[in-house]
Specification:
Blueprint (H helix, E strand, L loop, with lengths): L3 H5 L8 E4 L5 H9 L4 E4 L4 E3 L5 H12 L4 E4 L2 H13 L3 H9 L2 E4 L2 H9 L13 H7 L2 H4 L3 E6 L10 H9 L3 E6 L2 E3 L5 H11 L5 E4 L2 H13 L3 H9 L3 E4 L2 H9 L12 H15 L1
Parallel strand pairs: 1-2, 1-9, 4-5, 4-6, 6-7, 9-10
Antiparallel strand pairs: 3-8
Length: 284
């Protein structure tokens, strides 16, 4: 039986089809769109490499314990929590938290702040915009010159680096940057559903496509190239298919390909679903 809040949700997306590429919280996002009447085409564009198996993260953790950082920059809640959990599996969580607790702690947003505090760490500052650009603007050369800076990185996929300008900006301020790649993504082992979704977007068989992570956006473009439809995919997302993104970090690989995105005021799934429900019918 349909609940009261579901019945009360206006069916503004009835008759519209929306493609989503989320792997984490995909069911939740799909439900938010279906409540508004959308036909949802869903396929995960990425799968996560388990952090306990990630050699690069383990090496970065050991390096930071051996030579403690002066500054810690935490960028995501799920990533920071996963890092501590992986360190616990390796038997070095207490040592890691000890060295991080002696550093200046910068949080990129409320989710990262929550994860830091849950681990017993306290941030000294967090940007209102939740953006890496504001973090970079906040940290002056005097803050960073000669300092060892640990950066909890977003996920990367293949050759795509999600933080090049941010990390370069830290190095331009004479910081020694140690990146902790807390989760790394790869394309799913079975790409059948993803290929079908990409073909639907490339041939404008959907009205919109929505992205909730930068690695998923990058993966979709890379896979489009692999199956020979990248040009059609980009053309469709520049034209008849509306492209929605949860925020500027997610939009980065799309904008690098010349694809404009529409973003909500807040980087949240519910805000993204509301934006699509309000914006897509108006455009049509």
């Amino acid at each position: 039986m349909t609940s009261g809040p579901d019945r009360a949700t206006p069916q503004t997306l009835a008759g519209f089809s929306v493609a989503i590429t989320a792997s984490r919280r995909a069911d939740e996002f799909e439900a938010l769109l279906r409540r508004r009447g959308a036909r949802v085409v869903s396929a995960a564009a990425i799968s996560m490499v388990p952090m306990t198996d990630d050699r690069a993260l383990r090496e970065a953790t050991r390096a930071l314990i051996a030579a403690p950082p002066d500054v810690l920059i935490a960028t995501t809640g799920i990533g920071f929590r996963g890092w501590i959990e992986a360190a616990r599996e390796w038997g070095v969580a207490d040592d890691l938290l000890d060295v991080l607790g002696r550093a200046r702690v910068i949080s990129r947003g409320p989710k990262a702040t929550g994860a830091l505090r849950a681990a017993g760490l306290r941030e000294e500052w967090s940007p209102v915009s939740e953006s890496s650009a504001e973090v970079l603007a906040h940290l002056t050369p005097d803050d960073l010159a000669g300092k060892r800076v640990a950066v909890q990185l977003h996920g990367a996929i293949d050759a795509w680096d999600p933080n090049p300008e941010f990390l370069a900006g830290l190095r331009e301020r004479s910081a020694e940057v140690i990146g902790a790649p807390v989760y790394r993504w790869e394309q799913p082992s079975d790409t059948g559903a993803l290929d079908s979704l990409i073909d639907g977007v490339a041939h404008a068989r959907v009205d919109a496509v929505a992205f909730t992570s930068a690695p998923a956006a990058a993966s979709m473009l890379l896979r489009g190239n692999d199956i020979g439809v990248r040009a059609n995919l980009i053309e469709a997302m520049r034209g008849p298919v509306c492209v929605y993104s949860v925020g500027p970090v997610t939009s980065a690989p799309l904008e690098a390909a010349g694809i404009s995105t529409i973003e909500p005021d807040r980087m949240r799934l519910a805000a993204l679903a509301r934006l699509i429900a309000e914006d897509l019918p108006a455009r049509s």
